[in-house]
Write a structure and sequence with these properties.
The protein is an alpha+beta fold. The chain contains three helices and six strands; from the N terminus they run E-E-E-E-E-E-H-H-H. It has a domain of 80 residues.
Length: 189
């Protein structure tokens, strides 16, 4: 494809000025960091979690004498003001090899998996809830019938009191209240 005058071209962008001097903070030693905060799977693009801002940061200068953290900001991209992290350009000391890191990571995973709970314990009941649940468990269909039979005399007495006509005069206005229960009959087919 030929380039024509109508095709857009990329605008010249200013280059980042990287400082040559390292941070005044003491160097980070890989052996003192948790193995889960280091990623050495691709040694040429090694990254670790910054101890100050807790973001993953690339380690530069793998082929040079001094390895440092990439200059980075503390906040998220495109949010508020970009503040330079104080651990930018901090030196990194490689005091462990990649196989040692892998072994430390495997040990950390094994230890963490042994700490996690495997059984979920039920929440303790209050005494009232415990009594209610025990009473429900003890009730059988025969027990429920016996409970109903024990209540029936009291229900019958309450019905008799409801049917009784109160003493005194009948209301002067309005229809009479039926005292008998109506049972509608279905028409014959």
């Amino acid at each position: 494809m030929a380039i024509t005058a109508a095709m857009p071209t990329a605008k010249e962008r200013p280059h980042r000025a990287r400082r040559k001097r390292a941070s005044t903070l003491p160097a980070l030693k890989l052996s003192q960091l948790p193995p889960s905060n280091i990623d050495l799977r691709n040694p040429l693009k090694a990254v670790l979690v910054c101890t100050d801002c807790k973001t993953w940061v690339l380690i530069t200068g793998i082929y040079s004498k001094v390895q440092k953290l990439v200059p980075h900001h503390t906040g998220k991209a495109d949010v508020a003001a970009a503040l330079h992290c104080r651990s930018s350009n901090r030196r990194v000391e490689w005091d462990m090899t990649i196989p040692e890191w892998r072994q430390a990571l495997t040990d950390a995973i094994t230890e963490a998996s042994s700490r996690t709970a495997t059984t979920v314990l039920p929440k303790a009941f209050s005494p009232q809830t415990d009594r209610t649940l025990r009473a429900r468990a003890e009730h059988t269909p025969a027990g429920r019938v016996a409970d109903w039979n024990a209540v029936l005399p009291r229900v019958a007495a309450a019905d008799e009191k409801r049917r009784a006509v109160p003493a005194g005069d009948a209301p002067a206005e309005g229809p009479e209240v039926p005292l008998d229960t109506l049972h509608p009959k279905r028409p014959q087919r």
